[in-house]
Design goal:
Two copies of one chain form a homodimer. With 634 residues, chain A is an alpha+beta fold. Chain A contains 21 helices and eleven strands. In chain A, the strands form three sheets. Chain A has a five-stranded mixed β-barrel. Chain A has a two-stranded antiparallel ribbon with strand order 1-2. In chain A, strands 8-9 form a two-stranded antiparallel sheet. At the A-B interface, β5, α10, α11, α12 and α13 of A face β5, α10, α11, α12 and α13 of B.
Chain lengths: 634, 634
């Protein structure tokens, strides 16, 4: 937060025009108040608690890359990441929103003031290579660490964080499916961050149903393809951060089958690359316009026109969706993290406001009699609201890291069975994290905004930006309804339900072990009840969804949220266990933190988790009522 | 909805600059698709069904003003209102959002293109006087009719509808509390719409806690007062629609007690009024700046500076809050209606899109095999989402009209006991309508936006504007947390719980009468269960909230929503009863509508109402966990 004179100094950091916009737009002192700007402090301590104490991260040092990052080094890296996020990215978050991106008559696009210099700082810090393949210049550290850094950056500046975020997704797809030649040409530059990446799927008439896509690829004599078509909603499609942009594009090779079985993946550079690695001619792929969006204004979301642009096949012909799924799965986890990230930063600002804003008196008598009124954090409904966000944030963070660790195990373990078990849970949890964390994360930004009353609705306090930015995460990378269908229609029954049985086994094992313990029963018994709801729902789908798929689809959204609540409940039970153990052992100066964990866990069990009963009831209502009404009667 | 060439013609209606902005902003044809703009069709039929068949409106023709408006006349008036809303207000809704209001160096404010001409059409149509006192030029028709017109206008253009909406609230306050002289001077012009009104409560440091307000009033020799201070978030505070603006302002007379007991209400005209009724000098009350808001850009939300502005006392000195409550209560119902209104218009557009957008195939086999894909309305999760909005809209509309009718009875009945009984229920339901209808209305705009995928996030389709506009309704006129406290802390226990006992009696009477009927049990039994939850929650408050008010406050928000669900469930049961009766009697060509009512009622009972169980569980969890955590540990 900035007080007024600091704010003046802050404005001077920017180009005169930006400073003017910022100053004028904010009109910071017109109420004669001290001035606030949204602030952010990266939750390094909570992250370390989860990694060290809840997930026992050190146990995994047999995985490649893990021994290079013992916990004290991870803590140091996160400290550096926190500095970058708090000091460089947070201050330009509102500027990005206010200025947005601009497209120029030559089809070039400029990003908001200071976005480029922040990106240069990021690249110089080596952040882009953190978790990528050492063979191409990466540092090969755990993906779990990357997930944390992603959370921090997305809290500090979601629109900015999308530029490197997409690059990492594109790297993952190329790493898995591209030929050695393509890898050699593109990966080193993308890993160092000199070039960014994009994913081009959506067309005007299709997003979810990619089988309809029309962009075509015509084989050329030299083995390349000429790509022609229009893609929309392309995040970071054109910008001024880097000298080159590498597009991963879905298109149909001339003569290929219709539907999803005729789609191939291509790599299409903005600037052609000469054989010596230098940049060559401009490829005819251009930004036709910038979308006018509700939020994430700092990210250039483009209509991209491919007019015979030269591209190369990635992976097998007609197997493009398969290759793109590598990028999409990674992106889906990243989007779920965005939901958590916006919830976290909105929460931090709401807490600060609730401690500062004086309004009314505590029902039990004045808490601050020397002041004209009490800070609003004394009011039960304000506390209820804030606790519901906090209880989500700390469970969601644990769930993200639990799942990210599965990803590391799935990719890095030398034990086949261990890899498969981890991959099962990763696949199962990916739609849950994408769908539930973005829905609840968005709701939390709305709740946090509500704490500000009218001040939350005006731009100056920055709270409404969090709401507008968070909203996209429910939509892109597969709208949340699609995540629910992926979970229920694909992940649940795969391999005879192996993944969900493994999850049920893990959670019920924990419950059995701890339900009789005095200090744990208040946390474990509600979880037991909700796990039972989830198991009943799963059983109901098996009995009623196979013969009539509408029954499964009509209950899919509720099932996804029921699953998310149980998974978060399990994360709280795990955290409560650690907190109890630490308090018993003396807590080492962290008594407050451990008590906070126990109280927040209890709040989650009492007020958030019971919602699973309503989900079960809706699921077992079945599809009849939902399907009965003729379309004309809506 | 407009196709492309109609859109060009549409653009030509506006000033060249506006047309250019509109055209350029929309870039309607860049995807080569037909072009859509949000559309709106006022739900006249559903409203008439509720008035005629559910509420038996004709029974009330003993109330003053009601016999002037038999149902066929009401239907004709609503038809005219629909034309105005659909033809004049809807087309300028997005323009209002894009252009916003502009403040000029002379402190004047201009509204968006065509807002003024729409206002003139409204005034010429005599709409502003519809329900106001005939002694001052009004038509004296039922308030219930005004509530319907308010819904239509708020769906069509919420930002625009706020200008006349605030005038009507100011008229109500003056009507009840002002001296005959003040009424004579202000009411005729305000009722005809020549002057608009505002309400000035909030100051930079206080909104909810008005006891802290600092604006001062110094008595002058002529009986007037000089008002000095700063008010913020003043909707319609300054604009170019009318020649004068009448501000109702809360201020503290010099020497008055501190806190809420020293607040008085003043009427402060922008332009002084000469004794012959003509406009005189400019009063020193000016717009200091326009707020930069998340939405309702078309309404000028102002910082108003009072620099010794001349005002006159309304009602008794130091009893200003009491007088302002007349305006606030009317405004709270109006804000609840805004929640419904945005949900309705968002729903209509989402349904149109869901029938048009082709993506994927029905799970039971292609529904439109001749097309490349099926319209997304075949998918269970899309239907579930749309039905949840529809089930809210039609129940919320019935609840608004049920409550508005109570307001008419409370103000117009000649029977004291009938007046009191109606006033009890009006007071009880006002915070529920404000809090629940705006929360659920906002959530529904988000759900409707979600149906559009990425197209919902870009401005062209207009869906994100509904979300941004609807958001304010949860905040202003008392943030929804305050509504919950009003309900639980003031309305519930008043007069020994007379109001809620009367509500319980009415609903349980209906349940008893119909629970054994075959065609009704599916609708009545779930209501019975949820009413029981609400009664248990009420009982729990009586046993645990009186001795420890934190228990009541911690559960207040859940109680408000539990109450709202039961009230809407009751509205659905009433509608199902009518639909069953009509189908039995032959339905007179309305078979589809009545079947739709029964199916939607069933959906509400199966999938919306069961949430009361979770609310009850949270309420009875009590305040301990909520209050336990020290402020520093948040």
């Amino acid at each position: 937060m900035f007080v007024r004179k600091e704010f003046k100094a802050f404005c001077r950091m920017f180009k005169p025009k930006t400073a003017y916009i910022l100053w004028q737009h904010a009109q910071m002192d017109r109420y004669g108040r001290e001035v606030y700007m949204p602030s952010y402090k990266a939750p390094v301590d909570d992250t370390m608690f989860i990694l060290r104490d809840v997930l026992n991260f050190e146990r995994y040092d047999n995985l490649s890359g893990f021994s290079d990052a013992p916990l004290d080094m991870i803590e140091a890296i996160l400290g550096e990441s926190a500095k970058f996020c708090e000091g460089v990215l947070t201050p330009i978050n509102r500027i990005g929103d206010m200025e947005g991106c601009k497209r120029h008559p030559d089809n070039s696009v400029s990003t908001p003031d200071s976005f480029k210099s922040a990106y240069q700082t990021y690249v110089q810090g080596g952040w882009n290579g953190l978790t990528t393949d050492p063979d191409y210049g990466g540092q090969g550290l755990p993906y779990t660490l990357g997930a944390v850094v992603n959370e921090f950056m997305s809290s500090a500046n979601m629109a900015w964080a999308m530029y490197p975020g997409l690059t990492l997704g594109a790297i993952a797809a190329l790493q898995t499916h591209a030929s050695p030649d393509i890898k050699r040409i593109y990966l080193p530059k993308m890993i160092e961050g000199t070039w960014t990446g994009t994913m081009n799927l959506t067309e005007p008439h299709c997003g979810t149903d990619l089988g309809l896509l029309k962009t075509k690829a015509v084989p050329e004599a030299d083995g390349s393809y000429a790509i022609t078509g229009q893609k929309i909603f392309i995040s970071a499609g054109e910008h001024d951060l880097t000298e080159n942009i590498i597009h991963l594009v879905l298109a149909r090779i001339e003569g290929a089958p219709s539907g999803t079985k005729g789609i191939s993946l291509f790599v299409v550079p903005k600037m052609m690359i000469n054989s010596d690695g230098s940049l060559g001619a401009r490829n005819p792929v251009t930004c036709g316009s910038i979308e006018h969006k509700m939020g994430i204004h700092g990210n250039s979301t483009c209509v991209m026109n491919y007019d015979g642009a030269i591209g190369w096949l990635v992976g097998e012909a007609n197997r493009g969706l398969n290759a793109m799924f590598v990028m999409m799965n990674e992106a889906r986890l990243g989007v779920g993290i965005q939901g958590l990230a916006q919830s976290e930063v909105a929460y931090q600002n709401a807490v600060a406001y609730a401690k500062d804003r004086l309004q009314g008196r505590a029902l039990t008598g004045a808490a601050s009699p020397e002041k004209p009124a009490d800070p609003i954090i004394v009011h039960p409904d304000v506390r209820r609201t804030l606790l519901s966000i906090k209880a989500f944030n700390e469970a969601a963070r644990a769930l993200v890291l639990w799942t990210a660790l599965k990803s590391d195990i799935a990719h890095r373990s030398e034990d086949v069975a261990e890899r498969q078990a981890a991959d099962d849970l990763l696949g199962l949890m990916t739609p849950v994290i994408k769908g539930v964390l973005t829905d609840m994360g968005f709701d939390n930004t709305v709740k946090a905004q509500q704490m500000f009353g009218g001040h939350g609705y005006v731009a100056e306090w920055g709270m409404e930006q969090f709401v507008r930015d968070a909203r996209i995460a429910q939509i892109y990378e597969g709208a949340n309804g699609i995540q629910a269908l992926d979970l229920v229609g694909r992940k649940l029954g795969r391999d005879g339900g192996r993944a969900i049985m493994s999850f049920f086994g893990e959670v019920s094992g924990f419950i059995k072990e701890h339900e009789a313990t005095d200090t744990m029963s208040a946390h474990v018994l509600p979880l037991k009840k909700s796990l039972d709801h989830l198991q009943q729902a799963t059983m109901w789908f098996m009995q009623n969804g196979l013969s009539k798929p509408d029954n499964a689809a009509a209950g899919s959204y509720d099932f996804m949220h029921c699953f998310g609540l149980v998974a978060m409940g399990y994360m709280w039970a795990l955290q409560a266990k650690v907190a109890n153990d630490k308090l018993k052992a003396g807590a080492n100066g962290a008594t407050d933190n451990m008590n906070s964990k126990l109280m927040t866990a209890r709040f989650f069990m009492e007020r958030v988790l019971p919602e699973t009963a309503a989900h079960l009831q809706r699921i077992t209502a079945g599809a009849d009522t939902v399907m009965a009404m003729p379309a004309d009667m809506f």
